[in-house]
Amino acid sequence: MKRIDKENWDRLAHFNVHSQRDVPMYEITVDVDVTNLKSVAKEKGVSFYYALVYLVTESLDSIENFRYKIQGEDVVLYDRLIPSFTDMIKGETLYKGVTLEKGEDLLEFCRRAKKMSDDQTEYFPDIEFPLDQLIHFSMVPWLNFTAFKNQFYIDKDDSIPKVTMGKYVEKEGRLQLPLSIEVNHRLVDGYHLGLFYETLARKIEEL
User: Fold this and answer.
1) Cα–Cα distance between 169 and 178 in angstroms, integer?
2) In which domain of life is the source organism classified (predicted)?
3) Is 192 helix (H, G, I), strand (E, B) or coil?
4) Is residue 153 over pLDDT 90?
């Protein structure tokens, strides 16, 4: 983690403008083509959901703005983000929160995520990482939504990307999954969101 020299930061004017908003967070939902990911996950015998969490984390990590964090008067840059996702054991109706390092291998992450989720007995255990280093993931596999709105604290410094994924459906022979992401406009613009979705699409197709 490093501290940003705000006075020489190319984003300072945009940061200051959006700091005037009472709630500078905004959210967008885009359909993501997950056809290839579904096929690869089935072939490799791993969770489609865990694999998608991995690829989203990898895509966000690759774009600096998502790793900026507001800490009081400072802005810092983390070298990586940590996925923290909801999960539900088959046959249960209450979810748990599972948090672990992404690592560098998709299949190995899926195996570690499954073991951690299976072994975890608490719904919300203590998290060993700084909370603002997390990505908050939710999965709503029962709904193919077109928009989503998170619950939130009114905290202008909240820098945690919040990703919500829904039920995929077939459209013109392809599987499309709604993926919503909420970000802080003090740190992230539409350009960076577009870059994120493009990066994710490419990573899915290159599996």
Assistant:
1) 9
2) Bacteria
3) helix
4) no
29 sits in which H/E element: strand 25-33
Q: Can you tell me whether residue 117 is helix, strand or coil?
A: helix
Looking from the CA of 189 toward its CB, the CA atoms found within 13 Å total: 7
Judged on CB neighbours under 10 Å (0-12, 13-18, 19+), 107 is middle
| 3-state DSSP assignment of residue 26 | strand
Confidence tier at 89 by pLDDT (50, 70, 90)? confident
108 membership: H or E segment, kind and range:
helix 106-119
* Domain architecture of the chain: domains with CATH: 2-205 (3.30.559.10)
Kind and range of the H or E element at 159?
A: none
Separation between Cα atoms, residue 184 and residue 14, nearest integer Å = 12
Show the DSSP H helices in 9-101 as ranges. Answer: 12-19, 35-44, 48-61
Mean pLDDT along residues 81-103: 95
Residue 154 — pLDDT band, cuts 50, 70, 90? confident
